[in-house]
Amino acid sequence: MLPKTSVTVIRRQEVGKDPFNTSIYENVREDVAGVLVTPGATSDLDASRPEGVRVAYTIHFPKGYGKTLKGCLVQHLGDTYRVIGDPQPYMGDGTPGPWDMAAEVERVDG
């Protein structure tokens, strides 16, 4: 059995307009249970950032989640990661297991 866990998706959402008709945004947090987190590549950055390191994961979201993750942040084990690109669910019922969307996330330190 693969270990499932929970993550928090942080989504930027428009909540209104200011007096100059400029959009006002807030970060909305959503806990998602039943995800599978797998390690991605970890790499040191180039010589211009000798203390830098890139940490990546692939987060598999449960079937039926279906919300866009483009531009979102994901918190896992106290760290915040940026979603790369615009992850899409796999096609149809041919996907085995309880997950149908893989999102690559990364964090750069240093």
Structure description:
It comes from Candidatus Olsenella stercoravium. This is Phage protein. The protein has 110 residues and is mainly β. The protein has one domain (5-89). Helix content is 0%, strand content 59%. It contains no helices and six strands. The chain has strands spanning 5-17, 23-44, 53-62, 73-76, 79-83, 99-109. Strands 1-2-3-6-5-4 form a six-stranded antiparallel beta barrel.
Q: Please report which band the strand proportion falls in: under 5%, 5-15%, 15-25%, 25-35%, 35-45% or over 45%.
A: over 45%
Low-confidence residue ranges: none
- Terminal-residue CA separation: 36 Å
Any idea what the radius of gyration is? 16 Å
Q: By helix and strand content, what is the structural category? A: mainly beta
Overall, the morphology is globular
Largest sheet: 6 strands, antiparallel, barrel
- Count of strand segments: 6
Helix content: under 10%
Average pLDDT, rounded to a whole number, is 89
Count of DSSP-assigned helices = 0
The helix/strand series, from N terminus to C terminus, equals: EEEEEE
Q: Can you list the strand order of the major beta sheet?
A: 1-2-3-6-5-4
Total domain count: 1
